[in-house]
Amino acid sequence: MDCNRIIKSLEHNRYKVSYFETSTAAAEYIAENVKGFTVGFGDSVTLATMNLAERLSAHNAVIDPANYTGVAFSEIALKTLTTDVYITSVNAAAETGELVNIDGAGNRVAGSLYGHQKVYFVFGTNKIEPTLDKAIWRARNIAAPQNAKRLDYKTPCAVKGDRCYDCSSPHRICNTLNIYLKNMEDGAGEVIIIDENLGL
User: Fold this and answer.
1) Is residue 199 domain-resident?
2) Residue 1: CB atoms within 10 Å
3) What is the rounded distance in angstroms from the CA atom of residue 75 to the CA atom of residue 98?
4) Which of 2, 6, 16, 72 has the greatest number of CB atoms lying within 10 Å of its CB?
């Protein structure tokens, strides 16, 4: 995939952008640049596929809520909000330079917005859409249903597996939608694009 347009757009929106052909190369880059920190993770299939938490644990104190549920998840997710570095993925990215995340509990979005020395947004080229509208559509109708199904939630989107039903289920996974229009004022955000099909 030709990523020149999205890279230029993201750079215009004040992000540092790093592009890698493989997830292995991306993981090596992150591991080389993240040493001696506390590192928080957003729950992410992409990051789990890369075994990034395990890799970074060799030289960092890693806090990853991915394998916890209930009260334990809430406690671990809260700790990620005060780490030096935060690493998450996105549900979609627009070639026009915006990133999109949907969240059920709010921890991934909260962790990506403020308070860290560095925030990495890591995603595969399968999440790239030509416009912001299509990126939002992907987040709601592709990523959210697949994530709800992965978590074994009984929401209409997970059961039917075809689209968002804008439901009122207590397990609704899309309680907030965040659009990152520009890198934050502190410039902490860096985008890692990987030319692979990664995550949901």
Assistant:
1) no
2) 11
3) 30
4) 6
Asked if residue 143 is part of any domain, the answer here is yes
In a domain, 79, yes or no: yes
Q: Are strands 38-41 and 92-94 parallel, antiparallel or unpaired?
A: unpaired
Would residue 8 count as lying in a domain? yes
**CB pairs under 8 A, 24+ apart, for 161-166?**
164/140
Q: What is the pLDDT of residue 70?
A: 86
Q: What is the number of domains present in the chain?
A: 1
Closest CA to 13 of 97, 135, 84, 115: 97
H helix or E strand, kind and range, residue 17: strand 16-20
DSSP 71-137: HHHHHHHHHHTTSSEEEE--SEEETTS-EEEEESSSHHHHHHHSS-SEEEEEEEGGGEESSHHHHHH
What domain range is 33 assigned to? Answer: 4-194
The CA distance from 185 to 191, in Å, is: 15
Query: What CATH number corresponds to the domain at position 21?
Result: 3.40.50.10420
pTM: 0.96
C-alpha 179/C-alpha 85 separation (Å) is: 20
